[in-house]
Amino acid sequence: MTSQLNHLPSAKEVGTYDPATLASNFSDLHPPLTHRQAMIESQRCLYCFDAPCVEACPSEIDIPSFIRQISENNINGAAETILEANILGGSCARVCPTEILCERSCVRNHDAECQPVLIGLLQRHATDHMQFDGHPFKRAATTGRHIAVVGAGPAGLSCAHRLAMLGHQVTIFEAEQKPGGLNEYGIARYKMTDDFARKEIEFLLEIGGIDIQYGKRLGDNLELANLHKQYDSVFLGLGLGASRALGLTGDDAPGLMPAVDYIKTLRQTDDLGSLAVAKRCIVIGAGNTAIDMATQMARLGASEVTLVYRRGVEAMSATDHEQEIAKANGVRMITWAQPDDILLDSQGRVVGMRFAKTREQSGKLTATGETFEIEADAIFKAIGQGFDGESLSDATAAELARDGERIHVDDMFRTSLANVYAGGDCVKPGQDLTVQAVQHGKLAAHAIHQALTAKQEAA
């Protein structure tokens, strides 16, 4: 964890930012719409009958309908339309890459103004301002069935909520001490402010019929074999919990750590000024986690932040929008370079990194033979998360068919084990998006319900 950075000064000691500036730097990245702005924006929508934005939405939200409801000042109706399709619609409105999904597909992009309807901000407006007397969705009659869900991330929570709606009892087993998964621990703090992840889950749980047990980790103090015997069905929403290693000497040196570990600490702290800050740091990677890490370190007061990627800009998985956020915060980006050696001082602490220049030759990445060095007080790895194989270490779990390292599922999210389903980042194929994980959980819940109902009718 951040013990790897104990030798570095805190944000207070760096002295670049005062508390007010720090607070401002980690306030909403995109301020919410006012009521007037939302009304005006909602009236720009053409309410397409066969809307391409819906086709582009992984959770199949009826976007024209909820925007029309906003234009009619029916905020609760709009929120219910969103949440019926995506119970985590509030967090998805904040973190979903709308610029490459629904908003890219908006027909307004082909209009003279070439400006899509601000679907993400409208979705946030509806979910932020809903005022229900009680939970908007009611539980069906109790089925007497009890389902185990492993993981309280977006996939697991979505699955649990839909199962509860369908009348089942659900117990969620969560390894951490808080629910939410990446929404709680892995999203940039300026994207999800004011403890929103916790509030959203409290709302989700109001449906009833869902119990969460914390500190339960599959492969440690929880076995799939027992869950398989004790529950009518099991849903695995394990996520990707293992940070990939660089494979270089010094991978565990003070000053080098996974970006996700630092972001987790940053999201949980009450005092931003107490966080260790590298005045000069390197972030290795090209995805949204790399962008989030680099941007947040710059906002904490680092004077030099360099993001390095082994391929070209066009191959970066972070969207153009995310890249612009980093650049606007002074992050320097270097492409076509891969880690070659970790530079350490006499005490074994990070002082920089040597990189090998790369190029693509016959479709393969190769080193050119040239190298260069960058001085740094800390290096953050954001080269992807891998599946934690330890979670499937018991005999029953080991029987699960795999697609590479991830769990194999069919179109109904069924694994190779009877009555065991999986979804979210731990399965393929996928884009590793929150909104996609929510959809997986919802569809898996319907598949579980269908299978249990068929079994009951056959009995």
UniProtKB/TrEMBL annotation:
<comment type="function">
    <text>Involved in pyrimidine base degradation. Catalyzes physiologically the reduction of uracil to 5,6-dihydrouracil (DHU) by using NADH as a specific cosubstrate. It also catalyzes the reverse reaction and the reduction of thymine to 5,6-dihydrothymine (DHT).</text>
</comment>
<dbReference type="InterPro" id="IPR017896">
    <property type="entry name" value="4Fe4S_Fe-S-bd"/>
</dbReference>
<dbReference type="Pfam" id="PF14691">
    <property type="entry name" value="Fer4_20"/>
</dbReference>
<protein>
    <recommendedName>
        <fullName>dihydrouracil dehydrogenase (NAD(+))</fullName>
        <ecNumber>1.3.1.1</ecNumber>
    </recommendedName>
</protein>
<feature type="domain" description="4Fe-4S ferredoxin-type">
    <location>
        <begin position="36"/>
        <end position="69"/>
    </location>
</feature>
<dbReference type="GO" id="GO:0004159">
    <property type="term" value="F:dihydropyrimidine dehydrogenase (NAD+) activity"/>
</dbReference>
<keyword id="KW-0560">Oxidoreductase</keyword>
<dbReference type="GO" id="GO:0051536">
    <property type="term" value="F:iron-sulfur cluster binding"/>
</dbReference>
<dbReference type="InterPro" id="IPR023753">
    <property type="entry name" value="FAD/NAD-binding_dom"/>
</dbReference>
<keyword id="KW-0285">Flavoprotein</keyword>
<dbReference type="InterPro" id="IPR036188">
    <property type="entry name" value="FAD/NAD-bd_sf"/>
</dbReference>
<dbReference type="InterPro" id="IPR028261">
    <property type="entry name" value="DPD_II"/>
</dbReference>
<keyword id="KW-0288">FMN</keyword>
<comment type="subunit">
    <text>Heterotetramer of 2 PreA and 2 PreT subunits.</text>
</comment>
<dbReference type="Pfam" id="PF07992">
    <property type="entry name" value="Pyr_redox_2"/>
</dbReference>
<dbReference type="InterPro" id="IPR009051">
    <property type="entry name" value="Helical_ferredxn"/>
</dbReference>
